[in-house]
Design a protein that fits this description.
The protein has about 725 residues and is of the alpha/beta class. Mean pLDDT is about 85; it is low at about 710-723.
C-alpha cells in the first residue's frame, strides 16, 4: 500500500464516519427525504379501497346551494342525527366544532331585541338544546380541536388500561382545547380530537396521533372514539415496549388491535379518494325522498359528518398527492383498522440503516482505492439495487417502512469523494502522462495507451485507413519574406487552426512536417465513415483558411493570401508504434501514404485545393465532387483517377451543382475522346461554375490548356457550328 493509498483510505473512512454520524442525528432534511420515499411507495402500491361499513356524510357544495350557507342551524344538524340514527348508523362522528352558541337559534336571534318579555324569550326554542336532546342516548361522537389559549380540557367518555406504567409523556401534548357547548358535551357518547397532524409543518398528512396527553390524562382521536362507540366498548387498552418507559406500541379498541409508533401515532396507509365513500348531506335530509341504496349504505356503518366544500378550508393532502376533505382521512383511519392493513417502521430500522451506511461506505472506500472506481461504482449500483428491492419488498409484503435513500445517498457521496481523491492524488502520474503527450496524440490513442496492456509495444497492424496530407502553397516564397521567429509564428497559427479539424472529426494527427500536416482516420480505433469524415475535415480546413485570410490573421496584408493543397486517399496501410524501444511514434506507412502525398502534390498541377482519390470518392458520394482526371503520379506506373472536392452535401444537392456535374461529365468524356465539342462544353462548364461559391477559374483554365493541341481546323469547325 502506497502512502497515497493510505491517506485515501483514512480520508474515505473519515467521510463515512461523518455520514454515519449525520444519519444518526437524523436532521429534518433526511426525515423529509425519507417521508417522500415512503409517499412514492404508497403511490406505487396504495391501499385497495374496500366497501367497508364506513361512510362520510358530506356537507358538499351541492348541499350548501340547496340548504343554505354554512354554518347551518343546529336544529338541522339534529335532524341529520335523527335521520342517520333511523337508518341504523352504528356511530355518528362530527368532524365539526360546536364551541360557540348557535347564532341562528331563535332564542339567540331575539335576545338583544329591546322590550322582549323574558318569559317569552324562555319559551323560544334553543337549537343547542334541540341538538343535545337529539344526540342523547344515540352513538354520537363530537370533535374538539387544540387551542393555544386557555386551560380548557375536554371531558373523557372512555377508560384507559395499561400493561405497564401509564405512558402519559409519549403522545403529543395538549395545552388547551376548544370548549364544547356544555349540554352537547354531556349528551355525547364519545369525545375525540380532530387534529390530524398537529405541530407538523408538512402539508402532507402521513401520521395521525391517535392519542393526546396533558401529562395526567389521555385524549383519543375522533376516529378511535367512533370505532369504540360503534362496538359499545368502554375502555382502551395500551401496551408499551418492555423496559422502555413512556412508549406505546399498541392500542386495543374492542376487538381491534392497532400498531402505533412510540408516540401513539398511526402511519396512514391511504386508498385513492372515491365517490363511493361519500353521501351528500342533502340526500340524508331529503326525508322520504332519500335515494334507494343510501339506507343500506348507512345501516351498521360508522358515519363521519364533515365538509368537502372548498370555502370551508378543511382540505388536506395525502401521501398519494390528492387533496381531500379532512373528514375523509378520519374515515380512512377506521377503514385501515377494519381492513388490518397497517404500515409500521420497526424500532430497529434506524440502527439497520446506520449500520448499512457504515458497512457499505467502508466497502466502497477500499474498492475505489485498491481496485478501481469502476468496480466500486458497479458495487455501489448493486448495493443501490439491493437496498431499493429490499425496501420495496418489505413495504409490499409486510407494510414495513425502511429508508433506501440515506444508504444510497451516503454511498454516492462516499464513492464520489474516494474517486475524487484518487483522481487528484493517486492517479496524478497518469494525468501527467496525458498532460505531456495530449498535445501530440489524439484522445483515442491516449485512452488506448492508458487502458491497454502493452499498448506501447513496437509493431503495427494492417488496416484500411483514410490518409490526409495538407501543405502550404509557396511556403518557400513566404519564408523568404519573414524572419525565423515570424516563420514559427505563422506555422503555429496555421497548424493550430487547421489541425483542430482532424481531432474534431475523429482523426489522428500523425505528425507536422515543416509546413505540412499528416493525419489519418480509422486507427487506433475503428471510425465509422472515415472517408466521409476526412473529406468533411478538408472542407472545414478550406473554410477556416478563408476566414484567416479574410481577417489577415497571418499579417501579410490583403494582397498576400495563403493557399493550401489537400490530398486524401483511402487504402490499406500498416499502422502502429514505430521506432526504437525508447523513442517511437504512432504512425502509418505503406503505398497508401505515398499515394496520398502524391495526390496532395498534384493539387498544384490541377490548380485546385482539395483532391481525393477514386477510392475515397466512392466512399463519400454525399459530397459535391467533380472528376479532375486520371493523373500520372510520381513513382506510380499507372494513372490515378482523382476528384476535386467542390463542397459539402448541401452543395451536392443544389440545382447549380447538378447542372455543372452533368456538363462536366460530358466534357471529361469528350476530352478523353479528343472530341471537337470539348471547347463548347468547357465554356458551358465555366459559365455554370461561376454560380457556385467555390472559385473554379484556374481549375477550368488548366483543362482549357489541355485542349490547345486539338487541330486548329477542328476548333474552327466547332466555333463555326457554335455560331
Amino acid at each position: 500500500m502506497t502512502r497515497a493509498q493510505q491517506i485515501g483510505v483514512i480520508v474515505g473512512l473519515v467521510i463515512v464516519a461523518m455520514l454515519t454520524t449525520l444519519r444518526a442525528s437524523d436532521p429534518q432534511l433526511l426525515r423529509q427525504a425519507r417521508e417522500v420515499a415512503f409517499d412514492e411507495y404508497q403511490r406505487l402500491a396504495p391501499r385497495t379501497f374496500q366497501d367497508l361499513p364506513v361512510r362520510v356524510v358530506d356537507i358538499d357544495e351541492a348541499s350548501l346551494r340547496e340548504l343554505g350557507q354554512w354554518p347551518w342551524p343546529r336544529d338541522r344538524m339534529a335532524r341529520l342525527v335523527d335521520r342517520l340514527s333511523q337508518m341504523g348508523a352504528s356511530a355518528i362522528a362530527f368532524d365539526i366544532l360546536f364551541s360557540e352558541p348557535d347564532r341562528l337559534s331563535p332564542r339567540t336571534v331575539v335576545r338583544d331585541v329591546a322590550g322582549i318579555d323574558p318569559s317569552l324569550l324562555q319559551r323560544l326554542p334553543d337549537n343547542d338544546e334541540i341538538l343535545a336532546r337529539s344526540i342523547t342516548g344515540k352513538p354520537v361522537v363530537l370533535g374538539f380541536a387544540l387551542s393555544n389559549e386557555g386551560t380548557d380540557r375536554p371531558g373523557i367518555k372512555a377508560g384507559f388500561a395499561f400493561t405497564g406504567e401509564p405512558p402519559f409523556r409519549a403522545p403529543p401534548r395538549i395545552r388547551s382545547a376548544t370548549p364544547l357547548r356544555p349540554q352537547l358535551e354531556a349528551a355525547a357518547a364519545g369525545l375525540g380530537h380532530i387534529s390530524l397532524n398537529p405541530g407538523d409543518p408538512s402539508a402532507v398528512v402521513r401520521t395521525v396521533p391517535l392519542l393526546l396527553s396533558d401529562g395526567a390524562q389521555l385524549y383519543p382521536n375522533l376516529a378511535l372514539e367512533a370505532l369504540r362507540v360503534a362496538q359499545g366498548a368502554s375502555t382502551y387498552v395500551l401496551a408499551d415496549a418492555p423496559d422502555v418507559p413512556d412508549t406505546i406500541t399498541m392500542i386495543k379498541i374492542g376487538e381491534f388491535v392497532v400498531p402505533v409508533t412510540s408516540a401513539g401515532e398511526l402511519w396512514l396507509y391511504v386508498s385513492p379518494d372515491r365517490a363511493d365513500r361519500y353521501i351528500s348531506a342533502r340526500a340524508i335530509l331529503a326525508g322520504n325522498g332519500t335515494p334507494s341504496g343510501i339506507d343500506a349504505a348507512i345501516q351498521g356503518s360508522i358515519v363521519f359528518i364533515g365538509t368537502s366544500a372548498a370555502g370551508l378550508q378543511d382540505i388536506r393532502t395525502t401521501a398519494l398527492g390528492e387533496n381531500v376533505a379532512g373528514v375523509s382521512l378520519q374515515a380512512q383511519i377506521v377503514e385501515q383498522i377494519l381492513s388490518e392493513r397497517f404500515l409500521s417502521r420497526p424500532d430497529w430500522a434506524d440502527g439497520l440503516e446506520i449500520l448499512s451506511i457504515a458497512v457499505a461506505g467502508g466497502l466502497l472506500v477500499f474498492l475505489t482505492t485498491f481496485v478501481s472506481p469502476a468496480v466500486a461504482l458497479a458495487c455501489g449500483l448493486l448495493i443501490t439495487a439491493l437496498a431499493l428491492a429490499a425496501s420495496w419488498i418489505a413495504f409490499v409484503s409486510g407494510g414495513l417502512l425502511f429508508d433506501p435513500l440515506a444508504p444510497i445517498l451516503s454511498g454516492s457521496i462516499t464513492h464520489f469523494a474516494a474517486t475524487a481523491f484518487r483522481f487528484l492524488v493517486i492517479d496524478r502520474e497518469r494525468r501527467e502522462v496525458r498532460l505531456a503527450f495530449g498535445h501530440y496524440l489524439s484522445p483515442s490513442l491516449l485512452y488506448r495507451i492508458e487502458h491497454t496492456r502493452n499498448a506501447l509495444r513496437l509493431g503495427g497492424d494492417d488496416r484500411e485507413l483514410t490518409v490526409m496530407f495538407v501543405d502550404v502553397r509557396n511556403f518557400t516564397e513566404i519564408s523568404e519574406r519573414l524572419t525565423p521567429a515570424e516563420v514559427v509564428g505563422f506555422l503555429n497559427t496555421f497548424l493550430d487552426a487547421l489541425s483542430r479539424h482532424v481531432i474534431a472529426n475523429e482523426g489522428t494527427l500523425d505528425k507536422f512536417i515543416g509546413d505540412s500536416i499528416m493525419a489519418f482516420w480509422n486507427a487506433p480505433v475503428d471510425v465509422s465513415d472515415h472517408p466521409g469524415k476526412a473529406v468533411h475535415a478538408a472542407l472545414a480546413m478550406r473554410e477556416t483558411l478563408a476566414q484567416l485570410n479574410a481577417r489577415d490573421a497571418f499579417g501579410f496584408g490583403p494582397e498576400h493570401t495563403v493557399g493550401i493543397g489537400i490530398g486524401v486517399h483511402t487504402g490499406l496501410a500498416c499502422v502502429g508504434n514505430m521506432g526504437a524501444e525508447t523513442h517511437f511514434n504512432y504512425s502509418a506507412v505503406g503505398d497508401t501514404v505515398n499515394v496520398t502525398a502524391r495526390i496532395e502534390t498534384a493539387c498544384k498541377d490541377v490548380c485546385f485545393d482539395i483532391l481525393v482519390s477514386e477510392s475515397t470518392a466512392n466512399r463519400a458520394p454525399q459530397y459535391a465532387l467533380l472528376e479532375a482526371g486520371a493523373l500520372p503520379l510520381k513513382g506510380k506506373s499507372t494513372r490515378t483517377r482523382t476528384f476535386a472536392v467542390i463542397g459539402d452535401d448541401r452543395v451536392a444537392v443544389s440545382a447549380e451543382f447538378r447542372d455543372l456535374k452533368a456538363i462536366h461529365a460530358r466534357m471529361i468524356e469528350a476530352l478523353a475522346l479528343r472530341s471537337p465539342s470539348t471547347r463548347k462544353l468547357l465554356r458551358a462548364a465555366k459559365l455554370k461554375a461561376a454560380e457556385l461559391p467555390v472559385d473554379l477559374t484556374d481549375f477550368y483554365r488548366r483543362i482549357s490548356r489541355r485542349t490547345e493541341h486539338f487541330s486548329q481546323g477542328a476548333a474552327q469547325k466547332e466555333d463555326g457550328s457554335a455560331t
